Every structure is written in C-alpha cells, then in structure tokens.
Amino acid sequence: MPRKTGPLLPLPDAPARRRFRTTLLAWYRAQGRDLPWRRTRDPYHILVSEIMLQQTQVDRVLPKYHEWLGKYPSFEALAAAAEDDVVQTWRPLGYNIRPRRLQSIAREAVSNHGGQLPSDEATLLSFKGIGAYTAGAVMSFAFGKRAAILDTNVARVLFRVFVGEGEPKSHAMLKHLWELSRAVLPHKHVFDFNQALMDFGATVCTARKPQCLYCPMRKRCAYRNGAST
DNA sequence: GTCCGGTCCC
DNA sequence: GGGACCGGAC
C-alpha cells in the first residue's frame, strides 16, 4: 500500500514567481526596516543576530545585539570568555541554552575552522543551535549563497499568498513551503529578497491583524481571495 | 490565562 | 509526532 499523501500542491509558474519577487523587492526598498544586521556581511555578526532572533522579536534583540558585539567583538573574544559571563550577558533574552550554543560554535570556529564560520550547509547544520532556518540565513546573508529560508514569518507569507487553504503546520505543508521558498528565490538580490520575506511577514502579513490594506499582493493573495475557484 | 516561536530530543 | 526551553504580546 502506498502511503497516504495529501493533494499535490502546484508550484507557481514563472510569471507568478517573477511578479512575487518584483512586488516584494519593491515593497522592501520602500518600506523595509533599516536593521543593523542588514548593513553587515560579517559572518560572526550575522550569526549573533540570527541566534538572538530565534524566538525573540527584533525590538528586544536590538540593544542586546549592540551590547554583545561591544563585549565580544569576534569569534575569538567569545570563545575566550567565561561561560558564566556569556550567559549573564545574554540576560534577559531567555532560552538561555542559546548563548552556550553560540559560544560553542565560536570555540569550534576558532579551534577547527581557522577562526572562520564554515559556509557549507552540512557543517552549519552539524552545530548545536543551527537548524534549517539559521543555516539558510547564514548562507544567504553572510556568504551570499542562493539559499532559501523558512521561518514562521516566511512560512505564513508563502502559505497565504500561494496556498491559502489546508493545514499550514502539517509536515507535508512545511515541505511544500520549503519548496516554494526555493522556487520564488531570485538569482540576484538573494540577501534583500530573504530579508524582505521576513520583514513583510513581521510587519504586513502578520499572524494577528494582517495589514491587507497596505499589502501589495492583496489582489493575488490566495488566503485573502479564497484559495479555490 | 493563552498563544507564539527555532531547535533539540525523545 | 510532541514536549521542553523563556519571555513577551494580547
């Protein structure tokens, strides 16, 4: 017996992908937020921001990001710090396993990778604290690779625009949303595009009270207009 | 009080 | 597949 599979969800055709990219990038250039980790390509700075942004909103991360980089300006500095000090500095962001994992990545980078963060997906995923989302973020933001991302914001945006109905959190849906994230990814402007996806989900296509009036996709959004028909 | 969230681990 | 982690938003 073949395993039960959900209905096959189609990926958007080339014109639809292109419209989405163009619209989203135009929105981002006009409305995207100016955040400090969007002005750097330093892998250490990118990694610190991404670990902090796991389960933590931008407004709470901003001051801690600056404090952290002031205190631990490099992988070497973080690797050499006392663990208790590192955990204390992290407060009150929460999920206090994260600073320990960040420091262990720093120590690994210093000991085994010449003080650099590895850029290949398999090595990034081998670090505790780096999962599929953070690996994609690091590859695209720090190393300029054409890597897709899927965090909760991106998943919500892609689900609403291109799918609109079904179980948003099912395993099959998440697999489809990863495929969508890869399918819509442009060849150029990958950094801006991925930042735009997250920014759009965080500020317009929000979980509660989405700002559809200000959404440049509203006329083509499957969720807003009804997925079928 | 209830929901939310990336990753790890069971 | 489901719970733990830790705080904030509503």
From TrEMBL:
Q: Identify one Pfam family in the record.
A: HhH-GPD
- EC numbers listed for it are 3.2.2.-
What's a single GO MF annotation on this record? Answer: oxidized purine DNA binding
- What sequence ranges are listed for the domain HhH-GPD? 52-203
Which example biological process does GO assign this protein? base-excision repair
Q: What does this protein do?
A: Adenine glycosylase active on G-A mispairs. MutY also corrects error-prone DNA synthesis past GO lesions which are due to the oxidatively damaged form of guanine: 7,8-dihydro-8-oxoguanine (8-oxo-dGTP).
Q: Which family does it belong to?
A: Belongs to the Nth/MutY family.
Record-given protein name: Putative A/G-specific adenine glycosylase YfhQ
Q: Which organism is it from?
A: Luteitalea pratensis
